[in-house]
Request: fold
Amino acid sequence: MRVFDSHFHCIDLRFHLVAANDSFIPRPFPYRTYDQWMRQIGIDLAGGIIVAGSFQGVSTDFLQLIPEIKAQFHRQYGAVINLDPRLSDQQLIHLKDAGVVGIRLNFVRGNTATPTALDRLARRIYDLAGWTTEVYTDAESLHRLLPVLAKLPAVAVNHVGYQKAAIADLYRLADNGVKVKVSGLGRLDFDPWPVLEKINQINPTALMFGSDFPGTRIKRIFNSTDLRHFQTLFAPAAQQRIFYDNAHQFYFH
Reply:
């Protein structure tokens, strides 16, 4: 299956990890290991998005990997960063030229942005650079942010909303054009498959596969059993959208 991975972390020891987050520092996970894992599952990798983890802070040193990975594997890659809001417009354009396609706000671990601040930041980066915004939230934060998220031009919710209590709001957001990352399935406190089927019915362009490798702070990583679930539950046309079209269009519109 040809796949564009919307969510993976490359933890390379060549680059300094900024700080522990909740006393957690991840083990190394270089890109070559990631590539091996994907091939073992049976995925034909066509490209993807390197997503900065909370432990990387606002460092963008890992962007140096993008030209190297492109040259070695001849695939399309971009990056989602934890944005330092103090950066100037010129600095943002420089990051765009370096391969950044979006920002991530982690409300589960540390981010306390208000709905107004989120709206202002997401519109600024979209208008200036065409960047997307993605949020990792618990159910309470998602509900608080819902009125803003539903109106933003290019926004995604990480890890299928993360908690069972967020499902109703997730349906509302999908109906308003918000993307939903099919990632971090081992993080969830609910059975994701009926939810994914429902979201696909509400909005066929909403779901975007993400491996979430290497699965930091997670009980179970994505595996071949999960892949078989997709192949059983979704028709080939839906699989094409979920595993490639929706994410590729979202990040490289």
Summary: The CA atoms of residues 208 and 242 lie 5 Å apart. The first strand starts at residue 2 and ends at 8.
